[in-house]
Structure formats: structure tokens, C-alpha cells
Amino acid sequence: MDYDFIVVGAGSAGSVVASRLSENGRHRVLLLEAGPSDRRLWVQIPIGYGKTFYDPRVNWMYRTEPVPGFGDRINYWPRGKLLGGSSSINAMVYIRGQAADFDEWEALGNPGWGWRDVLPVYRRIEDHTFGASEEHGVGGPLHVSEASDQAHPLCQAFFRAGDELGLPFNRDLNGKSQEGVGHYHFTIRNGFRLSAARAFLWPAMRRSNLRVETLAQATRIVFEGNRAVAVEYVQRGERKQARAGRETILCGGTVNSPQLLQLSGVGPAPLLKSLGIEVVCERTAVGQNLQDHLCYDHVYRARQPTLNDELYPWWGKVAAALRYIAFRRGPLSLSVNQAGGFFRGGPEQPRPNLQLYFSPLSYERTPPGVRALTKPDPFSGFLLSASPCRPTSRGYLQIRSADAFEAPAIHPNYLSTNSDVAELLTGARFLRQLAATRALSAVIAEEMKPGPATTSDEALISDIRARSYSVFHPVGTCRMGRDPATSVVDARLRVHGTDRLRVIDASIFPAVPSGNINAPCIMTGAKGADLILQELC
Ligand SMILES: Cc1cc2nc3c(=O)[nH]c(=O)nc-3n(C[C@H](O)[C@H](O)[C@H](O)COP(=O)(O)OP(=O)(O)OC[C@H]3O[C@@H](n4cnc5c(N)ncnc54)[C@H](O)[C@@H]3O)c2cc1C
């Protein structure tokens, strides 16, 4: 089985890479995906991410090691395991990040990744509902929608609350500035989830030069010297091998790409040797620099109906289902993160450093992080949440054994810096300020969590440590950079010290961008494929 390119992982980035590399018809491309096809009801219906959140058929369902900053709590990490990867199970919020995030990537030694370089890539992949402008593109595969006409009426109270605090309504949170409150944009088209697979891969799968193998988990990259020449994989219990004449491209995501590198002998030598893995290329940085966004919720009982009133009773579920079937509209056609925004936690901040989420629904009775979207609380309730944009805590992950089917040990090291704790405290205080505005206090019956008794900094910090959770944006474990001692890939995404091997996914991000990261992952897929194709010319 000989190919020009082997792409490992059909997620947000991998779907784009495989699609672009097969576009001109000249290259034979093999795409290996550990999970199944994405043609499933709860994947395609937007609200279905509440169901896939705990479905082992389409989800790797990782768990972190005990996190000291969380009082040794273990955090749940869903990751998509199917065509589309995490873009097939995510909450569909579309945020590109701040211009300064990418300028920082460039300043860290990565030429070609500044905002002026990545904005044209975003514009090229987008089909934005706002139409073509300096900021947005149209006609690309990725339709970006906005659902202000369907947003729950309570979102208006949230916007007025922001305004009272000097945080004005921002019609376009992907425009010139993120600052303000507004409706989130979604990767949803005509009431269906628009994962990277649906947008990029489905059309490409008709090409005869692209072969997509599902339920095919790569277990090792085969090297000749330091040159990657083939990939071993297991499909339905059978061990197979495919050869890559030109390149092997890892798109397995922040957990799996460093895992596969380590399994294949590229990683910290002492770790590999201790597990009996032959060292092909010593790369200490593989698995390091792990960073992620945390979120902290305040839960309110409301005086007015919320989405709970629509989705809790059985007749409400039936009505929502009928509305969806007839018109592809209503709560089933949307993410529950209907509104949000970005703000500066203090006057010293040069740009927004905290993100807000407003969900007109609550699931207070379920443990933190669990998305019981179709089983909300039996009373009117909603959530306000704060999430620091650029945390400073750094963790790492590493394989536990040479067995490719054993999950790696994940040490996210959340809340290990004072500044991260202080930022979440600022976020918590801001949520209280929002709740105390005329607009929101009129609709709040009671703060259920953390509750009115939690007032001192100590009490709030203890609640933050007890209830914060990942919003599933881990990045950085195959960091891009110039120095092979501290990074894994160079600015062209080639693995330092190896030949014909690249990583293209969230793991290459040197720093997590401000906001949700599916859009940056898709952009990285498109830009990474450009880099490969340029070198062929
Ligand atoms: C529950 C959830 C909600 C989220 N909500 C949002 C949101 O609303 N907005 C947003 O912007 N971001 C959101 N995210 C984050 C975002 O979706 C991810 O960060 C992004 O999709 C990651 O892209 P990726 O290409 O790096 O990896 P992934 O999309 O995770 O793709 C990796 C793919 O590689 C496959 N793979 C891994 N190892 C192997 C192997 N050895 N062999 C073969 N295949 C392999 C995996 O099965 C997977 O399909 C969310 C994530 C989750 C999990």
C-alpha cells in the first residue's frame, strides 16, 4: 500500500489537510482515522453534543491525572474519535482569536504565522453569513452562521447587563475587536453541524486519489534512519502498514500526536528508554507546554422561563423535535452557548483577557463539566461563565507504556500560577457584577452556585478550585518554534531532527489563542497544507 501522503487523524485540521492535498488529483493520499464515520444522528444535529459527550463509540473520553490546583480532582477530557474529530462533538462556537495572539506566535520565532498571514487563510476557508469584507470571506467550504433571530430572549438581558457595566454590544465577536458582548457565531449550516469533515472531507471523499480508512488507529511511525517512511496501524484487530513516499502528517490532536511521536521513538529519551522504546530522535519537548482554557460557572434560578422550561418537560422535548424536523430551527438546531463576549479584567490589560459565556439553560444537578443539554434542571435556570483567555499554567503528557491503546498520562497542571487563580477570581467577581445589574437582577430569583454565602476571596478561590473545568481547548504539546530544545516542529511544521514528518493540529500552537479554538485548528490545517504544497512546486 503505497501513497504519497499519509495523514493520521481526520479531525479539524486533518480533514482540511487531506482535502487540500488530494485536491489537484496528482497525489495519492491515505487518511487514517481511529474512529468511525460521522454519519450519525447525534453528530449531525447540533444539540447532539450533549449525547456524544460521553459516547465511547465516538469519543476518546480521556481523564487527567489528579490536578493539584483542583485539590486533586480529576478532570474529564472528551476528544472526538470519528471523522471530523473534535469538530464533530464540539459546541460549534466559531471564534478566530485575537490578531495579537498570532502576532505573538510570530514573535515567538514562527515567521508566517502573524495575523496578516493567517487572516487571508481564514477569509479563504470561510463562507461567512455577514458577507465579504476586510474581516470575512465568502464562498469557502466553512459556513459560519449567526442565530440572533433564534436566540433566547434572556440573551437581551445579558447584553443590557454588559452595557450597564460599560461592555457594549459587539455585533461581530470575530471583527476588528473581540471586546464586548454579543451573539456567538456557529459552524452550523441549515440546522446541521458543520464539522471540518462535513465542510472539507465529505466533498473530497468522492476523489479516487483520496482513501479514507475509518476504525484505523495508527500505532507507530516507521523510520529509516530519521526519515519517516511508513505508518503501522490496526484496523478491526488486523495489523497493517502503509508507506508514504513523500510525507507523513500527524493530525491526531493535542493528546494523540505527541503520544504517537513518543510511541515511535521521538520524545524525551529517558522516558522512551524506561518503556523499552528505541530512541529515533531525542525531542524533550514532545508532550510538554500543555495549556488549556478553564471555565467557571455561576448558576442562577430565574424568574422568567429559560431553555430549561422548553427542554425539561417531555412535551417540550417533543415540540422542539417537531420544530426541528419541520423547520430545522429551535433549540435543537443551535449550540446552548448562545451569547458571550470578551472583556479586560483590569485597566492594565492591553486587550481582553477574559471570555464570557451566557447559556439560557442550567444543569445544576449534574456534576461540573457534564453536558446534560437535553436533561436540564426542572426549574427555570441559566448559567454565566468566565474563562481566562491566555492562562500561564503549563502541564505535560506522556505515554505510560509502549502500548498504543493505553491512554497517556495527562498532567494539565491547572491553576498552578498565582496569576491564573487571580484571573479566575476577577472573572468570578465580574459575573457577580453582571448579576447585580438592573437588567439581570430583575430576572434572577437566586444565585444557586456558588451561592450568596460565598463572598470572601478565599471562599471564591476555594469554589474555583472545586468547580472549574476544562472547556476542552488543550494545545501546545508539539509546540512550534525555532529551538529544537524547547519546541517540536519548526514554522513549516516539520518535526525537528526528522525528515518527511510534520504535525498539523492544535498541538503545534505555541500559545493558546483567545477564545474557542476550532477555527484556529481549521486555519492551521489549511495553512499547513499550503506549506506542503508550496514545497512541491
Ligand atoms: C466537547 C467539546 C466541545 C468543544 N467546543 C468547542 C467550540 O464550541 N468551539 C471551538 O472552537 N472549539 C471547541 N472545542 C475544541 C475544538 O473542537 C478542538 O480543539 C479541535 O477540534 C481540535 O482539532 P484537532 O485537529 O487538533 O484535533 P481533533 O479534531 O481532535 O482531531 C484528531 C483526530 O485524530 C484522530 N486520531 C487520533 N489519534 C489517532 C491515531 N493514532 N490513528 C488514527 N486517528 C487518530 C482522532 O480520532 C480525531 O478524529 C470543543 C472540544 C470538545 C471536545
Tell me about this structure.
With 537 residues, this protein is α+β, with helices and mostly antiparallel strands. Strands 1, 2, 12, 13, 14, 15 and 26 form a 7-stranded mixed beta sheet that branches. Strands 8, 18, 19, 20, 21, 24 and 25 form a 7-stranded antiparallel beta sheet that branches. The protein has a 4-stranded mixed beta sheet with strand order 5-9-7-6. Helix 1 (12-21) links the parallel strand 1 (2-8) and strand 2. Helix 4 (99-107) packs across helix 5 and helix 12 crosses helix 14. The longest helix has 19 residues, at 518-536. The chain is globular. It starts with a strand and ends with a helix. The mean pLDDT is 96. Bound molecules: flavin-adenine dinucleotide (FAD).
Name its key features.
alpha+beta; about 20% strand; globular; 7-stranded antiparallel β-sheet; about 525 residues; binds flavin-adenine dinucleotide
Mind sketching the topology for me?
Elements: E1 2-8, H1 12-21, E2 29-32, H2 41-44, H3 49-52, E3 62-63, E4 76-77, E5 93-94, H4 99-107, H5 115-125, E6 126-128, E7 142-146, H6 154-164, E8 180-183, E9 185-186, E10 188-189, E11 192-193, H7 196-204, E12 210-213, E13 216-224, E14 227-235, E15 238-250, H8 253-263, E16 266-267, H9 269-274, E17 281-282, E18 294-302, H10 307-311, H11 314-327, E19 339-343, E20 354-359, E21 381-388, E22 396-398, E23 409-411, H12 418-435, H13 438-441, E24 444-449, H14 457-467, E25 469-470, E26 501-503, H15 518-536
Parallel strand pairs: 1-2, 1-15, 2-12, 6-7, 15-26, 16-17
Antiparallel strand pairs: 3-4, 5-9, 7-9, 8-19, 10-11, 13-14, 14-15, 18-21, 18-24, 18-25, 19-20, 20-21, 22-23
The structure holds flavin-adenine dinucleotide.
